[in-house]
Amino acid sequence: MSVLKSSDILAQVDERPTEPVPKASKTPKPRVQRTPKDLDERKRQAAETANAKPSPYASDLRHKLRQKVQLSFGQIPEFISDELSRLSNEAGMNKREYLYHLLRDAGADIPPYDQLDGRKL
Fold this sequence. Notes:
The chain has helices at 6-15, 36-51, 56-66, 78-91, 95-105.
């Protein structure tokens, strides 16, 4: 094994060519020829995508769900709050669901609770 001296290394560096190495040229990709079958498939996919757009009902509901206000009953007697909790538990709902249920029974136009989650629209 031979030992290199720093003077030998510097001599080798000086011997390297200073001209830049030419880069390889990129060949253009061949253009894909589309057949009528490919175009029909693309039209079918576009039609499927158009059909997947939300209905006007869902768009309207999404808009309604974005407009929110704070609803608070303030101070109500404890026995009324207890009754609301008891009735909602018996119905298998939380208090908000039960309030919507009561409003629907009174004739309010409120969609089912599972549709009220705006993240699903």
